[in-house]
Amino acid sequence: xxTDNTAVVTGGASGNGRAIAETFADHGASxxxxxxxxxxxxxxxxxxxxxxxxxxxxxxxxxxxADYEDCAAAVEAAEEFGGVDVMVNNAxxxxxxxxxxxLDLEEYQExxxxxxxxxFHGSKAAxxxxxxxxxGGSIINMSSVAGINGYGGITPYSAAKGGVRLFSYAxxxxxxxxxxxxxxxxxxxxxxxxxxxxxxTVGTEEGEQLKQTIPLRRFGQPEDVADxxxxxxxxxxSYVTAESxxxxxxxxxxx
Length: 255
What we know:
Blueprint: E1 6-10, H1 15-26, E2 30-35, H2 47-53, E3 58-62, H3 68-77, E4 86-89, H4 105-133, E5 137-142, H5 155-175, E6 180-187, H6 193-198, H7 205-211, H8 222-233, E7 243-247
Parallel strand pairs: 1-2, 1-4, 2-3, 4-5, 5-6, 6-7
Helix pairs in contact: 1-2, 1-8, 3-4, 4-5
């Protein structure tokens, strides 16, 4: 489905990003794994090495998405394989989890720099190259169910992810005439280090109660997110842009 395509995946070392990179590679894409660290949080070989071991093409680019030059360098690294066709702005953090009145401004700014500004950086770097090449492309921005329904206690996270959603719609209008599609993905609770360690839900009593409210009665796996991204990256979604796809097992629908 992605033969002769090159994808840049930010946050590609771990969690959803790792699954996205692996899935894309399994379908023929060359991959630039862009992350602040090469070693996956869940253990195992670095994503780019794993892809190579399976016969695929991949490189690692050290990238802090809060720095535009890092994002531009990651997109430049895709030139080794012919240039970027797909940009997945996946990198993100949970950030502060406390009431607004107790929120530290520096923590707030760090979250916004990574979760929202980082999407801007990655999108701009990729769009510039896609426009130069003139072959269209696909930009996939990782939002969250929190970007649709705001949640108390994670106000900055909700704000950033909501910003990603509207940013994606606006950018889709700008880039559509040049054949570049822009879409947002909204995961619910996915079993990654973020929901196990950073914001413990999976494996907790509260998490088990939440699971029983989800129509599919399970939490998502990174592969569930990766498969949706595969659809948005491929020609199967050639007439899909300015769209949100929710990957939450029906959680929002049952609220």
